[in-house]
Amino acid sequence: MSREISYPITKHCLVMMNGGFGWIQLRTGNKDAGYIYFESDPNDKKDRFGGPDDHPYIVTHLPMSMWNAVLTTLRSEQGICIRGFDSGDGNVSAFLYTSGDGSFFEGG
Known about the structure:
This protein has 108 residues and is mostly beta strands. It has one helix at 67-76, and strands at residues 3-8, 11-17, 21-28, 31-39, 48-50, 57-63, 80-86, 92-98, 102-106. It starts with a strand and ends with a strand.
């Protein structure tokens, strides 16, 4: 069974760890909308859904080299949303997009 989740991003929080690892927590109101994990080599990580069944959030992984681009986008764009789609095979695709302009990049 396919599944799609989409949330508007109302705020974000940053965590940068020693050793080239960090994440951005995306919020919709007072609930989690998603997490973007940044690592030196995220290629072996799969996007997924997490959290409770009544309000799942989206988890995606990007290379550390995209940290500045994503942060700049979150700070400057309006109407950003996160979307997760699972066609039913367990492989989730995560996207950030602007509500008026369409997708601007896709997570891993």
